[in-house]
Design a protein that fits this description.
7 helices; 13 strands; 247 residues; Rossmann fold
């Protein structure tokens, strides 16, 4: 049976002609498509407050994919908000961090995409650059492309011997880029598995190989840059299947 991959949703408030505003939970189509295309069964997860309910939902899953989204609230890594901080959703952060800690306890595989990588690092006790242009303190390349998200824009250097290196079999990769925050201080038990030419961290993973986070958006490249499917194939067929078989 195929691995079930939980994808935490997000929420948004939309204008409504009937109710003035309408609040909705949603999961991006791109993440759903990436999981389905590569042999997994996507399971959308709404924001929950009750830990026992979180555990019940996690018991249905063989892995978690954390999507991109709003900035991570600096409250969760002990900083005051920078003037260039974008939109934050503290209730979403609280839920995701609780969910992650439960997943870490049972060594459930986790794949973080863009914001997903950042919140993994924060959940592990790490910090972020709240805004690369004003906080990084060095010259840097473009990290917020103005082109379509299914186009790659810059290169990254992959560290040999990492899970990411195993996935791609190369130390070079070209990616898209749509972020103004990034990992600063690494969280506990994490290593850097890729960097951009300016030194910005582009991928992290856990020392035990159960957690992988990438700063780009491979889910929007699965049709235009088909090698990006390798991330989802490995996550679903190796990491999640091994976890499923070991339950």
């Amino acid at each position: 049976m195929a691995a079930i991959i939980g994808i935490p949703g997000s929420y948004a408030i939309f204008p409504s002609p009937i109710f003035h505003v309408s609040e909705k939970y949603f999961v991006n189509k791109a993440e759903m498509e990436a999981v389905k295309l590569n042999g997994g069964i996507p399971l959308p997860i709404p924001i929950l407050e009750d830990v026992e309910q979180m555990k019940t939902l996690l018991n249905l899953c063989d892995g978690l994919v954390l999507p991109g989204g709003a900035d991570v609230d600096p409250l969760y890594y002990g900083e005051e908000p920078h003037p260039k901080l974008g939109t934050v959703q503290p209730d979403m952060d609280e839920f995701i961090i609780k969910l992650l800690n439960l997943a870490f306890e049972v060594k459930m595989p986790v794949l973080g995409l863009c914001r997903g990588e950042q919140v993994i690092n924060v959940a592990k006790g790490g910090t972020l650059y709240q805004d690369i242009p004003s906080c990084y303190g060095k010259e840097h390349i473009m990290h917020q492309q103005t082109y379509r998200s299914n186009i790659t824009i810059h290169n990254i250097d992959i560290v040999e011997g990492t899970v990411l290196h195993k996935i791609f079999g190369s130390t070079k990769l070209r990616t898209n880029t749509m972020h103004h925050q990034s990992v600063k201080d690494l969280g506990k038990d994490l290593i850097v598995s890729a960097t951009a030419s300016d030194g910005i961290i582009e991928a992290i993973e856990s020392k035990d190989g159960t957690v992988l986070g990438v700063q780009w958006h491979p889910e929007t490249l699965i049709y235009t840059e088909k090698d990006m499917n390798k991330i989802f194939k490995y996550f679903i067929h190796t990491m999640a299947v091994n976890y499923k078989n070991g339950k």
